[in-house]
Design goal:
51% of the residues lie in helices and 18% in strands. The chain is built from 27 helices and 26 strands. The strands form five sheets. Strands 14-26-25-24-15-22-23 form a seven-stranded mixed sheet, with helices on both faces. The protein has a six-stranded antiparallel sheet with strand order 6-5-7-13-8-11, with no helix packed on it. It starts with 5 loop residues before the first strand and ends in a 7-residue tail after the last helix.
């Protein structure tokens, strides 16, 4: 019963400013009763939560986060509501942009005065006046968020910014108002208005650049959402056609698909028939016949015919939405390496505050003359330069871009763990059917009982009137043969076609069509058809009312891209196997054509899984490529599972990756992208860790005793801002990589 109530949803989370925030929200959500797992992604500002809806609700999540000073959007019902989230992000970006411009405009004169014009009258008062709106108006968000964290005995990046700029401002105000206090003690008072205001300006600029860069990581999602039509034609209760928004479609509505229309929702055809281009889902170039009782899917394209269909799955229930959600959840998932980062982020801010206080105390003891001045500068600089944001963004930004780029290339990756596993694969197992072949039938064999031009003309004239893809392959095979007038043409569903030429009836279709019409077949043609059958070819019979005139063999040939794909995989040093349920002759022929030495035929599903276990026992990292249904046991057993083709819900549930296109080359692309993404994560983490390891001691003043260098808080603010920007920018470089 509990399993039936398990739900997995992704919600936008508001007011997270750094890795510490993400870590705190993650920890809070995972502590809620009824939550199986919650994964918070700072880069996408979202939380993916798997929970028992009979125990806890989305409103409960929001309430807990609001109490902590955060917020959550929980009322997203369908993909169109993402427009509202996008609008909110645009407003947020515009707000940050305006605050940044004003902060820079006010900080610039403060900086000029502090550097070059300190001797002008009222210089300290002018800087005080200009810095006040920067700190308490343009930078108010840092103080508000820091206060909310403090109420819950917590701290984050905003705490560091608020403490550093606040202390600098308060000390400066005290030194302006009570100058005599210091002069009477032989100390020349300093003001730090330029430090506090310029720091706010730099951090806002960093957030602006970061927000702009992070917005680009959602490109893949926007592209997928673009497959959905906005307006659809529905038949009202009184039988009239009317156009409505896709958001207004209800389950049970009867919709019309006209030639060229994208299907709006998943449904069942109730009237009419047509061929539908499902390449968006399957990658197959051949359109699929859809008639009464057949399923159609959102985002696919209707071709020549028109039909009515009943809406069965709407909104977030459609297969397209399922794919979009898979990409979202994968982008929000955590790589195993991220767990280490989360632990560090959880204790980072308290450690930094402790270091800043210790640096102040150390300066007071070690420098009796200028200890207070240098100590305050060091404390402020340590608080500013220690940026957990770069650490927090290192992994999720790379994962978002990597998984997004995969989706653009027709590769759905279930989670970040799959990405990490894929880079270690050394063995590829391919299921033959639907993976290696063309997917577009061609005539490979033909045997005539009576071959002449008139019979060829009758055959192609019949097939030209048919809309079946196999008919198209026959017409293409006899390209150049003239067609003739066929009378009383009839399409016989599931069997073939029939027509009349000069008062004689002709048939083209399956063996069932020949048997039902009591048509004789010559022994020679019978033997030929048996031979074609053994080669696993589709057989089409052409006959008149008395006897079979010709037998045609049609099959899916190996795709040209499959040869290139196998070549690339072998070049990478990967061992390749073909496991097939077909007979040994077919498996051997396919393997020989592709140059694959290892193959096994006539294998049951459990046999495939057992073979994978054998390989794994020999320390092989195995990738299984199959359809996700017949190969479900093998997919589950493998280290990396890839479902090819359209993929049923079962295929998507089992497989770590789903190749929407059936192109074999995408397997190599997936492995290459995995390696590039993991490399980017390692680069990001390296620079984020190195930045903090080097920057914090310098900020504390360790170089002062050697060369008199003390880091300026303004430079620290710029460095902190750019560290986050550099991490996001490095991740975005993945988008330009060729795979």
């Amino acid at each position: 019963m509990e399993n039936n109530n398990m739900i997995k949803e992704t919600f936008p989370v508001l007011n997270m400013s750094c890795a510490v925030c993400a870590s705190r929200v993650d920890k809070e959500l995972n502590q809620i009763k009824g939550v199986k797992e919650a994964v918070v992604n700072l880069a996408s500002a979202s939380a993916t939560i798997e929970y028992n809806s009979s125990i806890v609700s989305a409103e409960d999540f929001r309430s807990r986060l609001v109490a902590l000073g955060y917020d959550m959007i929980i009322d997203i019902k369908d993909e169109d509501d993402n427009d509202e989230v996008e609008d909110a992000e645009k407003k947020k970006y515009k707000n940050i942009k305006n605050r940044t411009i004003w902060a820079i405009a006010l900080s610039l004169p403060i900086f000029v005065i502090s550097m070059f014009l300190m001797d002008i009258p009222y210089s300290n008062l002018i800087m005080w006046v200009l810095s006040t709106p920067v700190i308490f108006w343009l930078g108010r968000g840092f103080f508000i968020n820091a206060y909310k964290q403090a109420r819950h005995f917590s701290a984050n990046m905003d705490t560091l910014v608020a403490l550093s700029t606040g202390i600098a401002y308060i000390v400066s105000v005290f030194n302006v108002l009570f100058t005599s206090f210091w002069l009477s003690r032989g100390v020349h008072p300093h003001v730090y208005f330029e430090a506090s205001s310029v720091i706010i300006a730099f951090i806002l600029l960093g957030k602006l650049l970061e927000s702009r860069a992070k917005g680009k990581t959602s490109f893949a999602i926007k592209k997928l959402i673009g497959f959905q039509p906005k307006i659809v034609t529905v038949i009202s209760e009184n039988g009239k056609e009317m156009e409505i928004s896709i958001k207004d479609i209800k389950k049970g509505d009867i919709l019309i698909a006209k030639p060229g229309d994208r299907i709006a929702v998943d449904g069942v055809i109730t009237k009419g028939y047509s061929y539908v281009d499902e390449s968006m889902l399957s990658g197959e170039p051949m359109a699929v016949l859809k008639q009464e009782g057949y399923l159609v899917y959102a985002g696919t394209i209707n071709q020549k015919g028109s039909f009515n269909y009943r809406a069965d799955k709407v909104g977030s229930q459609t297969m397209l939405s399922h794919i979009i959600n898979m990409v979202k959840q994968a982008q929000g998932s955590k790589a195993p390496v991220q767990k280490l980062v989360d632990k560090i982020a959880g204790i980072f801010v308290p450690i930094i505050i402790s270091i800043s206080i210790l640096s102040l105390i150390a300066w007071l003891f070690l420098d009796t003359q200028n200890g207070l001045t240098h100590g305050l500068l060091s404390m402020i600089t340590v608080l500013i330069i220690a940026c957990p944001c770069a650490l927090g963004l290192a992994t999720p930004t790379a994962i978002m871009v990597g998984i997004g780029k995969a989706a653009e290339n027709g590769i759905l990756i279930k989670d970040a763990k799959t990405l990490e596993v894929a880079k270690n694969i050394d063995t590829i197992i391919l299921d033959k059917t639907g993976t290696i072949t063309e997917g577009k039938p061609i005539v490979t064999d033909i045997q005539w009982a009576s071959e002449n031009n008139i019979n060829k003309s009758i055959l192609i004239s019949l097939e030209k009137l048919s809309e079946h893809p196999i008919a198209e392959s026959i017409v293409n095979h006899f390209n150049g043969v003239e067609s003739i007038q066929i009378d009383d043409f009839e399409s016989l569903t599931g069997m073939g076609v029939r027509g009349i030429f000069e008062n004689d009836t002709y048939f083209a279709g399956s063996r069932k069509l020949i048997i039902e019409n009591n048509i004789e077949i010559d022994r020679k043609l019978e033997e030929y058809s048996n031979l074609l059958s053994k080669e696993n070819k589709t057989i089409i019979y052409f006959a008149n009312a008395k006897e079979v005139i010709a037998v045609l063999g049609i099959m899916d040939k190996i795709k040209e891209t499959s040869f290139a794909a196998i070549k690339e995989l072998k070049k990478e040093g990967l061992d390749i196997y073909i496991l097939s349920g077909d007979n040994i002759n077919i498996a051997r022929k396919i393997a020989e054509d592709l140059g694959i030495e290892n193959f096994k035929a006539e294998m049951l599903p459990q046999d495939k899984a057992d073979f994978i276990k054998e390989l794994q026992a020999n320390n092989k990292k195995v990738c299984m490529v199959g359809d996700g249904i017949n190969d479900s046991v093998a997919l589950a057993q493998s280290d990396l599972s890839i479902a090819m083709g359209k993929g049923s819900d079962l295929a998507m549930d089992i497989a770590g990756m789903t190749i929407i296109s059936s192109e074999l080359t995408n397997i190599y692309k997936a492995i290459k992208l995995s390696r590039l993404t993991v490399l980017t994560i390692k680069q990001n983490l390296f620079w984020a860790f190195v930045y903090n390891i080097i920057a914090i001691p310098i900020a504390a003043g360790v170089l002062y005793s050697f060369n008199g260098f003390l880091l300026n808080p303004m430079i620290a603010g710029a460095a902190m801002a750019m560290s986050s920007v550099s991490v996001v920018t490095n991740s975005l470089r993945l988008r330009a990589k060729k795979i």
